[in-house]
Amino acid sequence: MKFEVYCDESQPDALWSKSRRHSKYLLIGGLWIPAMKRAGLKTKLNALKKKHRYPGELKWHKVHEGKGEFYRALVDLFVDVGSDARFRCVAIEADKVNLERFHRGDRELGFYKFYYQMLLHWVAGNNSYRIFCDMKTNRIGNQLAEIGRILNRVAVSATVESIQSLPSHEVVLLQLSDFLLGIASTRMNGSAKPGSYKDRLARYLERKLRKAELRPTGPGESKFNIFCMDLNRGW
Description:
The protein has helices at residues 13-16, 38-51, 68-80, 99-102, 107-120, 143-154, 172-189, 197-209; strands at 2-10, 25-34, 86-93, 128-134, 159-166, 224-228. By secondary structure, the chain is an alpha/beta fold.
C-alpha cells in the first residue's frame, strides 16, 4: 500500500539555544494518510477553509476564538476519517539532549536524528512512502535524502520512494500537520493557560478521541501517537 507523510516541527528553539528556550519539549510530527485518500482529504480541507472564509495559511500560532467553528470542524474531520488520517509525533526533552556527546556538537544533525526516530517505527510492512516536510533552510542540504537512505536500509520490507521539503503555504496537508502538532505541543509544554481558547480546543480534541488528556502514548496507539523519548532508554 502507498502512504504519504506530511511533517512539521514545533518549538525547535528548545534544541537550538538555551538562552532562547521557552519550552521544555521540541516536537516533530507527521500526518500519515493512504495515498489514495489524499485528493479527498484535500478537497474536504479546502472546502472547510472556503466555508468558514479562512484566509491564507492554516498555522497553529494563528489560532484564535474568532474562527472557533472552523478549528472544531478541522478536529471533527481528522477524527471522523478514522484510519485514513493518523498523527504521530516525537517529544524530546531539550535539557537532556547532549549534542556534544551524541551529535558531534551539531544541533542540525541532532534535529534530523530525531526526525528519523519519528518516522522509523511507522515505516513498516510491504508499504511504500512519500514523505513531505515543511521547507526550512539547512546548513547541510542533504539531510532529508540521508534519512530516506537510512530508512530504506533499516525497514527491510518497506520502501521510502522520496522525501522532500515543500513550502507549507502551498500544501494544505502540511498545514493540518502543523495544527495537530500545535495541539500536542500545547499539552506537552503546558503552554496554554487553563480556560484559554487553545486550551479549550485541545480539550475538544481530547473528548473526540475519548481521552482524559493528550499525553505520551505507547507504541500501539495508532490515531494520535505521542512518542516521548527517554534519551536513556527509548520508550
